[in-house]
Amino acid sequence: MMKRFMRWFLAAVVMSTLLGASAHARPLFWYRDGAWSIKHVFSHKHRKGTRSDLTKNSQVPNASKGPLLIVVSIADQRISLYDDGVLIARSSVSTGVRDHPTPLGVFSVIGKQKWHRSNIYSDAPMPYMQRITWSGIALHAGNLPGYPASHGCIRLTNDFAIRLFHLTRRGTRVIIAHDDIRPVEINNPRLFVAKPKVAIGSPETGSATQAAETHAPLVSNAQAQGDAKGLDFAAAGVTPQKVAPISIFVSRKLSKLFVRQGFTPLFDVPADIQNPNEPMGTHVFSAMEFPNEGAAIRWTVVSIPEQPSLRQKTSAKLQKGPAKQRAVLSTPAQANAALNRIDIPQDAVERIDKLLTPGSSLIISDYGISDETGNDTDFIVLTH
User: Fold this and answer.
1) What fold, for 30-178?
2) pLDDT tens for residues 145-162?
3) How far apart are CA 364 and CA 248, in angstroms?
4) Do 305 and 181 contact (CB within 8 A), yes or no?
5) What are the C-alpha distances in Å from 8 to residues 3, 11, 21?
6) What's this model's pTM, rounded to 2 decimal places?
7) Closest by CA position to 110, among listed 269, 271, 220, 270
């Protein structure tokens, strides 16, 4: 009897040990386990090294007050969300490894899908996916081990990914840089000024008529369908923007100005750039919500450093995990210097003024248009 009891006891101990080991055996890399189910992804506990919320107001709100801007810092492994120029939420991310780095530059959301699987990496799940390039780079919910671990995508915490998905729209600007750069307000007489315009149409159909002198197309730019709990934007009193914002791109390399609206090319003209052999940098100007009719437009700018700052490099060498909170504040001086070197034909300026709406943007860069730019994208500018 005693021998039988001992056999049962030993069997129970062995079984308990095996089950415990199995329960803790979870891979660190998302793409190395394509068999993960959606249920597994959303029940996964993030490791101690990650920071899902880093600001007092860390929860993504249900609706935006003005144009949104997403900034991803590679050095900090952090995403920051700005609404009408104000920081409203921040969270940890996991970006690309050395052999599959996350590209740096200026992007925008070009496609969204709640339940997506990678067609490149073993059918890996990419829930709440927001695509920023057609070559496979996207923001999506995923495993965050506390350091770069993806094949180029930007993995988000589950809750942040869900709320961000329901807040953004196609065309939301995304900037990826080494440093955690922040927008600042800027004033310059060379920035465009909005003119009165008339537009009638539906954002769902993409069909509309506009003042004859502009002939600007309208595109599908519908608001997202509420927050993660089902709250819709109509109930929140937010009116969808009917006219798609325009994007202006000035390239020092090409000595040209290009204009797009809702991913559709409108026109391009030569741009006269003073001292064309001298770098200007890459600067992204954004038109904020218009305070009232006839008032001057508020502009913000983000200047993207070409290389990681010395402070970022030193900090990265001293620690394994993501760096502590820090940021490189954009300086209007550099952006103003770039603006002052550009001369644009007056007829092009007047046409742009008539098309200007909140959310419109001006990109100035030493680089040309990336090959990633296509018929279904905004301007994509790669800085690395």
Assistant:
1) L,D-transpeptidase catalytic domain-like (2.40.440)
2) 999 999 899 999 999 999
3) 8
4) yes
5) 9, 5, 20
6) 0.71
7) 220
